[in-house]
Amino acid sequence: MQGNELQQLIERQPDRHSLDRAFYTDPEIYQREIDLIFLRSWQYAGHVSEVPRRGDWFLFEFGNESVIIVRSDDVQISALVNVCRHRGSRVRTERAGCSRRFSCPYHGWTYGLDGRLLVAAHMDESFDKSKHGLRTIHCEIFNGMIFVNFARDPAPFSIFQQELGDVLAPYDLAQAKVAHRQNYPIAANWKLSIENYQECYHCAPSHPEYSQGHALAKPGARTSEMMAAARQKRPACGLRTENVDSVYLAARAFGADTAYDAYPLWPGHVTGSKDGKPVAPLLGSISDYDGSCTDLQCGPTMFALMYCDHVVIYRFTPSDLHRSQCDITWLVRGDAVEGEDYDKDQLTWLWDVTTHADKRIIETNARGVMSRHYAPGPLSSMETFLWTFLEWYLHTMRQDSLRSLDATGTGGKH
Ligand code: FES
Ligand SMILES: [Fe+2]
Predict the structure, then answer these.
(1) Strand order across the 136-142 sheet
(2) Residue with the nearest Cα to atom 3 of ligand 1?
(3) CA–centroid distance, residue 102 to ligand 2 (Å)
(4) What does the alpha-carbon distance between residue 274 and residue 287 come to, in Å, rounded to a whole number?
């Protein structure tokens, strides 16, 4: 699709409607999304507790990209591009491991944990190993959460600390640990997965398990007294009451979105579990259950549900035009012992059953969108955040299509 065609497509997009089908089916649009959104944003890669020892590593992957997140020494965690500098083989193919060095499986070039090339057999004397280390990308840590960014000059990472540092402090996520992680492959374009996450219009019909505990599913039944009561209780539990909301077009810089917003659980529920009862020890310095669930967002594709006793991190990434991945990580206190302090099945039950339902409805949505009878449909008042995401998406794509018009010199015709 040429820049001017994309420009026309964006201009035709009706306000507060779902997207034109081409946004879900055009391979060139998909490639632009990778370049413009995924290679320029801060993306959640994992948690520090996944790489506790020197040499521990795991892969973070999306589209055609693969990154090795490795603890290269006691204090340093690095992000190495998983592409051999000889002829481009993936250097690591397993999901995670612990290594002293990274040896390419093809011809044996061997790299240190910091990416430096150490061994390359039978190369000319003029070959300079120092110029052929694995490429590195930006890698930063915020409250124990590891973020990466491929951009040469990314948005300042300090925005996360400035906007969310105070409100996240009581959870002490740097000392938390991964209790479980689960991958849910979704046969749908990545935008359909995020669109679904951004609205709770579908919660009442699709998520009875979630709806029985969380007041977001039925806004009409939620009273202002409930909201006020939950808010009042938070300081006594050691939690902050400030809201943060600078996402998408309102973000302080592209790819560094930040949001933190609590909403009440129904009476009798103190956390996100099957019966609303506690499922793990209280996190960090939190002293009691406040009766809320808190939504968190860091970057455009990472979201979390924060309860007083556990945190559920969602990450959405594209695999290709028609497939995306939803990766969920459950965090609990770092000193909590499985089988004693928490039961993994109880801990993960709610968001596992909810995500299976989401996978089903997103994939069913994707099949309908593929029909030639699909047309953009109007959004409800419960889909405001979804439109916030789409507005940002269209704006981002518009900037790029205008740039490409300039570059080809055809901009004046339209
Ligand atoms: S491609 Fe890695 S050593 Fe040849
Ligand atoms: Fe859902």
Answers:
(1) 43-47, 145-149, 136-142, 77-81, 65-71, 56-62, 96-98
(2) 107
(3) 40
(4) 22
* Closest residue to atom 4 of ligand 1, CA basis: 107
Label residue 155 by pLDDT band (50, 70, 90).
very high
Q: How confident is the model at residue 75 (pLDDT cuts 50, 70, 90)?
A: confident
Q: 78-92, 267-281, 289-303, 398-412 — which is least confidently predicted?
A: 398-412
Ligand 1 nearest atom to the CA of residue 109, by list position: 3
Structure tokens at 84: 């051999």
Q: What share of the chain is helix, strand, coil (3-state, %, to 5)?
A: 35, 25, 40
Predicted confidence at residue 161, as pLDDT, reads 98
Question: What is the residue-wise DSSP string for 193-222?
Answer: HHHHHT--TTHHHH-HHHHTTBGGG-GGG-
Strand partners, 294: 262, 306
User: How many of the other CB atoms lie within 10 Å of CB of 226?
Assistant: 18
**90 C-alpha vs ligand 1 centroid, how far in Å?**
8
Give the three-state DSSP class for 119: strand
What tokens does 372 get? 């030639």
List the beta bridge partners of residue 328: 182, 314
Closest-approaching ligand to the CA atom of 90: 1
Separation of 31 CA from ligand 1 center, angstroms? 26
In the predicted model, is pLDDT for residue 196 greater than 80? Answer: yes
- Domains, the chain: 1-42+158-414 (3.90.380.10), 44-140 (2.102.10.10)
Residue 122 falls in which region: left (phi positive, over 0), alpha (psi -120 to 50) or beta: left
Q: In 3-state terms, what secondary structure has residue 255?
A: coil
Which is the closest atom of ligand 1 to the Cα of 107? 3
Instruction: Tell me how far apart the alpha carbons of residues 24 and 193 are, in angstroms, rounded to a whole number.
Output: 11
Residue pair 207/354 in contact by the 8 Å Cβ criterion: yes
Signed CA dihedral, 80, 148, 403, 20: sign only:
positive
Q: Which residues pair with 295 in a beta bridge?
A: 261, 305
Residue among 309, 267, 265 nearest 286 (CA): 309
The CA distance from 178 to 360, in Å, is: 26
